[in-house]
Amino acid sequence: MEPISRKNFLQSSGLLLAGEILIKKPGALASETAQRTGPDAKPAQRWALKNVRLETGFVYEDDEVVATESGLFKVEIEDGKIKAILPNDPKANATNANGYLMLPAFRDMHIHLDKTFYGGPWKARLAKNRSVKDMIAFEQETLPDLLKTSTYRAGKIIELLQSKGTSFARSHVNIEPTSKLDSLKNLQKAIENKKNTFGTELVAFPQHGVFYSHSEQYMKEAAAMDIDFIGGLDPNAIDGSVEKQIDFIVQLALDHGKGIDIHLHEGGEPGLRTVEYLTQKVVENPALAGKTFLSHCFVLARLEKPKLEETAEKLANARVGVISTIPFGSTIMPIPTLYHHGVTVMTGNDSIVDHWNTFGSGSVLQKANLMAQLYGQSTELDLSRCLKLATCGILPLDKKGKQQWPKAGDEASVVLVDASCSAEAVARISPVKALVHRGNVVYSN
Length: 445
What we know:
Number of domains: 2
Helix content: 25-40%
CATH superfamily of the largest domain: Metal-dependent hydrolases
Number of helices: 15
Largest sheet: 8 strands, parallel
Number of strands: 16
Oligomer: single chain
Distance between the termini: 28 Å
Strand order of the largest sheet: 6-7-8-9-10-11-12-13
Structural class: alpha/beta
């Protein structure tokens, strides 16, 4: 690849304002004020990074991993993909990564971008210990007002996620008689504004119950729109029947070629019956395998070990995944057991500063750190494995220390962090210095 000029790089990446700062401050990618996340940000065509830190292997003592080796490289990017990983050339005409560690861009796989207080005045959630049905009644009163600013606030949350190294999110979006399809339409506007800088999947989510709020027709209309998954909510507690709600969701997903992602907060026999019945339906309909997920699924945390092992094996065999928000308190999800059986496990921020939850940093790297603490994953090897929670399974090194990412042809969605290795990044929740989405620099600090 021929060297490109700084002018050509800036033009191709769409970072003209960032370019002014690059010229003033050599070695910087951009500044916070130069972050470009609007529809005018075009994917970079051809450019390169030098002084990029990549993990190369593990250091062993007495068969134990005690450290991670890394080195500096030059990474060439073209048309949104990694073109080549080359020996470093500090004098190359390329953007300087300043020795920061390159990792796969993070992915938030459970969030509600459509309803939030974020982007407006501070507001804590209301009294705790309200039931889901209490919150449904509250939403029916407040959603009309929230919808007035939902496009703007969704955009602000996306920018928060980007600043934390996330370039992709699966967002649930309310589909119910109060907001009808307006919440979806407003969110789609926000996504369109960020289409060159952020990736999304959308879940049509009957937050007020499919039958409890008579949302059937709205769900059918949403399923025919530009969404990816059909959602659900506590089939027994909200709609009064595990089978009725799941049958509706499964048929809607099959009719429209969508996946399934159901919120399950219920424990006890109804919660377990939901898990088992959904798993059975996926086995009966192989088109749903690998495309079906249970979000939260707190019932798994309350099962006795033999039943948990049996259930995890069934989930893995049916290729039904679990999206865990890794809650604090007494409900600690059995993530190590799920991993052991080969269940796909992902995470997300869920609610960020809204009427459901006061907290939420926007960082899925923080979720990986929390998982490491909860399950005692404190060694170099264990910490490095925990990174997969933030990256949806992509790790720079395999468990033997062989480099497996990045490779030529991989999507150029990467994050630069101020860390020496994955283990340190997880343990310290290392600061994000830059985010590249499909070859386009969209955030830099």
